[in-house]
Amino acid sequence: MRATDPFDHVLLSEHLNLQKKSAWELESCVDWSMGVDTSKFLLPLDDSSVTFPGASDEQKKALSQLMGLIVNATISEMEDCLPLVKHSAWHKVLQRYPVNPEFIELGEQFFLEEAKHAAAFKKYLGEFCTAMGIDKEDLDLLLPKAFGSHFQDAIIRNAKSGGQAFWWVVSNVEEVSINIFKGIYRNRSEIDPLYFHLHRRHLEEESRHANYAYLMINLMRHHNRGLRGWWHQKTDFTWAQLVAIPWVTTELQKFFNVKRLKHKNPWFEVLASCIPLYESMSAKERVKRVFVAAPYVSWIMNPNHRKLHLNATKSLGSWMIPFPKAEDIPLTTAIFGRDHLEAPHGN
What we know:
about 350 residues, globular, single chain, mainly alpha
C-alpha cells in the first residue's frame, strides 16, 4: 500500500525500507557489457512515426532511436535539475513544515535514486554514440537541455514563493516514464536489449517512489493557509503545465540541426531525409499531433493522457485549463518490413 499521508510514519518507514532493500547499483546491476544493438528500435512508434507520416522502415528505425534518446535525455535533464531545485522545493519546505524523520529519509532516498537514473541515461547516450560512431557533441545538438532554461527558472521562482509546481512536474515525468515502459515492454523482442533492461530498472524505482511528489503536495496543502496558499493549490498544476509546453516545443525544434550534421554520419543522413515528411503536414495537423496524438510528445504536453495526474487534480481541487481530448494511438514496431501492432499506452 502506498503512503499518501505525509504524517503516517509507520507506512513511510515501510516504504523507505522497501526502497533501500530493492535499490539497484548503476554499474553492477545493469549489464553494460551487452552494448547497444543498433539494428533494434528504442521505442515503438505510431503509424505516423510521431510526426513523420510515410516514413520508410529505415527512417522509422532512426526516428525510433532518436526518440528513445530524446526520452532518455529529457528524463536525465529533469532529474539533473533536482539538486538545483532541492533547496527551495524540498529543504526549505521541510524547514517551514516539520515532519517525521521517515519522511525526510524517504526524500533523501528519492533524490539519490533520481541522480542515479540521470547518470544511467547519460551513460546509455555514450554507449549509443560509441556503437554508432557518432560524436557525443554532435548528438547533443539534437537533445533537450533544461539547465539555464526559462522553464527551470520559472519552476525555481514558483518554489521560492511556496508553490508546488515543481512537484507537479515531477509527478508528470514519472507517470509518463511508466507509460513509456509499457510500450517498450510490449515490443521488447524488437527493442535494444540494453535499452529495455535499463528502462526496466528505471521503472522498478519509479514505481516505488512515484508517490513522493504527491506526499510533498499533500504536505504543503496541509500547511499552506491564506490567500497565497489557496492560490498555489488552485493554480500550480496549470502553471507547471504551461511552463513545460514552451520548453518542450523549443527543444523539439533541435531536430532540424540534422541538416548540418547529415554529412557526418549515415544515421544523421537518414534523419535528415525525414524532414520533408514533417514538412508535408499542414501546420494545423502538426499542432494537433503534438498536443493530441503523437506518442511521447503529447503524453507530456496534454494532461488528458495522464490518468493519475487527472485524478490527483480532481481530488485535490486544482484547476486545469481545458486541453483537447487525447487520442490513444496504437504503437508500431516495424523492422525489416515486419509490422507488429500493439495496444496504446494507456491500456
